[in-house]
């Protein structure tokens, strides 16, 4: 069923390509999702004749497709899964804002055996870092000559400074500065409001419930820290099943060097476990040092690579190297990409 949405205001919608658009309205192929921001109900619309990159969020009062909206709401009630067990898993989360869960696609619930953790867990054969950081004596807030940070990585609002590409250094637990020190960002947790949402083609993903400004810390990638050998073994089994949650701690490696350790978030992780891939991601990942300076065991933190709108899915590039086909040369497993962006590579290598 197709219907139309009244054209109001300026821009944001596809350029007119048919008589309906020329008359001041666009043909809606489907309503894909909804989100409530304050008292406003917003709906994600798929336009007939346009790819998913042109999807737009429209307030309910701007819609003029009552039959399509009624069908969407009816189907949502019929397909809504019991997310109660999911919320019980999320009780362990220490996020600043409660995480919401939405599934209007199918009856799939929380991944079986998944446990929510707030920081990475060291497996027995991974050594604890033995290169502690040199604590600072700053008491009135750290400045550029602080021995911990050596540079101003964050602005006054805790956002990564534009142009900073190096690993991020934060004051640690033995430093004299307070918890409100401007260098303490990742360790203080994320203030982002998350919604874990079920998608028809991609499965579980994460959506921002409110706008996120570029440079904002979004989440840390946490899981079980394991050795390279264990990661190789698990990776073979996981890719055979068409999935992997392994993330090499290799941002200090160069050339053809391989990481000594990896983080596996398959059965233990936080909200980042549910982040999906995109060939045009809105997040980037940075190495972060807090308690120590061991380059083999840095932490991994996601930051907004650009301004992110409320209702937008949070994504990162699973395999940037596959831009040039490097994954195929390295023997990586090939998967079909479902991101649907204009720059979609169609396949990714993991």
UniProtKB/TrEMBL annotation:
Example GO molecular function: histone H3K9 trimethyltransferase activity
Organism: Coemansia biformis
Family per record: Belongs to the class V-like SAM-binding methyltransferase superfamily. Histone-lysine methyltransferase family. Suvar3-9 subfamily.
Subcellular localization(s) per the UniProt record: Chromosome; Nucleus
Residues involved in Zn(2+) 1 binding: 136, 138
PROSITE patterns associated with the record: CHROMO_2, PRE_SET, SET
InterPro entries recorded: Chromo-like_dom_sf (IPR016197), Chromo/chromo_shadow_dom (IPR000953), Chromo_domain (IPR023780), H3-K9_MeTrfase_SUV39H1/2-like (IPR011381), H3K9_Histone-Lys_N-MTase (IPR050973), Pre-SET_dom (IPR007728), SET_dom (IPR001214), SET_dom_sf (IPR046341)
Pfam families according to UniProt: Chromo, Pre-SET, SET
Record-annotated SET domain positions: 192-319
PANTHER family: HISTONE-LYSINE N-METHYLTRANSFERASE SUV39H (PTHR46223), HISTONE-LYSINE N-METHYLTRANSFERASE-RELATED (PTHR46223:SF4)
Highest rank taxon of the organism: Eukaryota
The UniProt record lists the keyword Repeat: no
EC number: 2.1.1.355
Entry GO terms, CC: chromosome; nucleus
Annotated binding of Zn(2+) 3, by residue: 171, 177, 181
Chain ranges of the Chromo domain: 26-84
Enzyme class, spelled out: transferase
UniProt main location, coarse: nucleus
Protein name per its UniProtKB record: Histone-lysine N-methyltransferase
Single biological process term from Gene Ontology: methylation
């Amino acid at each position: 069923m197709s219907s139309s949405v009244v054209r109001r205001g300026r821009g944001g919608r596809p350029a007119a390509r048919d008589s309906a658009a020329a008359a001041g309205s666009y043909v809606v192929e489907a309503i894909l999702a909804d989100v409530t921001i304050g008292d406003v109900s917003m709906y994600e619309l798929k336009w007939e004749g346009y790819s998913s990159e042109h999807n737009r969020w429209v307030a309910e009062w701007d819609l003029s497709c009552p039959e399509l909206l009624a069908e969407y709401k009816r189907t949502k009630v019929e397909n809504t899964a019991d997310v109660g067990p999911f919320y019980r898993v999320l009780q362990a989360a220490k996020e600043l804002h409660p995480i919401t869960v939405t599934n209007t696609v199918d009856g799939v619930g929380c991944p079986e055996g998944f446990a929510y953790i707030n920081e990475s867990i060291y497996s027995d054969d991974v050594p604890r870092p033995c290169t502690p950081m040199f604590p600072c004596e700053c008491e009135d807030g750290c400045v550029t000559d602080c021995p911990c940070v050596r540079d101003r990585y964050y602005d006054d609002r805790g956002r990564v400074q534009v142009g900073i590409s190096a690993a991020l250094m934060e004051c640690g637990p033995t430093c004299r500065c307070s918890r409100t020190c401007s260098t303490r960002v990742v360790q203080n947790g994320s203030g982002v409001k998350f919604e874990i949402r079920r998608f028809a083609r991609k499965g579980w993903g994460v959506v921002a419930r409110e706008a996120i400004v570029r440079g904002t810390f979004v989440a840390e990638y946490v899981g079980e820290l394991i050795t390279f050998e264990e990661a190789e073994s698990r990776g073979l089994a996981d890719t055979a099943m068409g999935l992997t949650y392994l993330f090499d701690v290799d941002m200090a490696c160069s050339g053809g060097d391989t990481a000594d350790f990896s983080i596996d978030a398959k059965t233990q992780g936080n909200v980042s476990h549910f982040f999906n891939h995109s060939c045009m991601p809105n997040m980037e990942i940075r190495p972060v040092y807090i308690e120590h300076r061991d380059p083999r065991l840095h932490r991994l933190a996601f930051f907004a690579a650009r301004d992110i709108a409320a209702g937008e899915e949070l994504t990162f590039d699973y395999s940037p190297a596959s831009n040039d086909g490097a994954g195929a040369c390295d023997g990586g497993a090939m998967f079909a990409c479902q991101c649907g962006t204009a720059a979609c590579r169609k396949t990714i290598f993991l």
